[in-house]
Amino acid sequence: MRLKLDARARRWLKRWPAVNPYSAGELVLLAGLAAQCARLVWAIVTPVGPLGDWRPAQPVVPPEPTELLRSFDPFFRVSGAQAGPAVVTSLQLKLYGTRVDEATGRGSAIIAGPDGAQKSIAVGEEIVPGVTLKSVAFDHVTVSRGAAPEDLYLDQSGAATPAAVAAPSGTPLTGAPPGSAPAGAVPVAQLRSDILFTPRLQGGQLTGLVVRPQGAGQAFRAAGLKEGDVLLSIAGRPVTGAGDLDAVARDYAKGGALPITVERGGALTPLTVPIAPAP
């Protein structure tokens, strides 16, 4: 049986475009475009709901300024379970100065044993039998005795009495309290004029004063200093600046032997500066 079309049907078939690969591709593209338009319309007309467990943020009330100051520690000490040892050692040791090496995390300290002799001890070395230096801080050291850590602090209650130190001329200077002027003593005003103090900053903190001679340099030589020495402590107190000489002028108004600690060639060296009475 053969299908016969009338003249009207044949005219409609002639108007239908011929199907070829190009026209098929156009139909696919048009179908994809229609689908994307439908998705766009659906996204516009469909209301958007919350995603997940959404909750509005609660208002944050800033604390009172007094609360902030109460919780702030200007010395950046560690609190709680991470705090260091709070046991002060009962050993017959005396701390004269510390040197903190922030680059290596180690350091050294000048410590006098029961015999009064001052020695430079590095971290990990033995101070006395059974006692080793564990760590060094700015104002104290931690020693280890039988695996138990203990603290040893700088004595800042007054001027420290140093052990005997030989002067540059060869004449030994024994530790003398304020009020007695050793031979070759110089006034505090001459320390200001004969010694140039330059702050040494490490990590934004003052870690010492670099000393150099200036002017006549008599006080510089009398103190046994060498150019490039770093002054770490004066009378057992860590240096805070060139203004520490004001405290020396006040405490040693009647003269005396002033103990200082300098860093020379990476090692701590104790020295004694003879101070003349103020006029």
Provide an overview of this structure.
- The chain has 279 residues and is an alpha+beta fold.
- It has six helices and 15 strands.
- The strands form four sheets. Strands 10, 11, 12, 13, 14 and 15 form a six-stranded antiparallel sheet that branches.
- The longest helix is centred in the first third of the chain and has 25 residues, at 21-45.
- Mean pLDDT is 75; it is low at 76-85 and 158-179.
Could you name the key traits of this structure?
six-stranded antiparallel β-sheet; 15 strands; 31% strand; alpha+beta; 279 residues
Per-chain topology:
Elements: H1 7-15, H2 21-45, H3 65-71, E1 94-101, E2 106-112, E3 118-122, E4 126-128, E5 131-136, E6 140-145, E7 148-153, E8 165-166, E9 172-173, H4 188-194, E10 195-202, E11 205-213, H5 218-222, E12 230-234, E13 237-238, H6 244-251, E14 256-264, E15 267-275
In terms of structural class, how would the helical and strand content be classed? alpha+beta
Count of DSSP-assigned helices: 6
Low-confidence stretches: 76-85, 158-179
Could you report the average pLDDT, rounded to the nearest whole number?
A: 75
Helices and strands, in order, run as HHHEEEEEEEEEHEEHEEHEE
What is the approximate shape?
A: rod-shaped
Percentage of residues in strands: 25-35%
How large is the radius of gyration? 41 Å
Largest sheet, if any?
Answer: 6 strands, antiparallel
Compose a concise summary of this entry:
The chain is an alpha+beta fold.
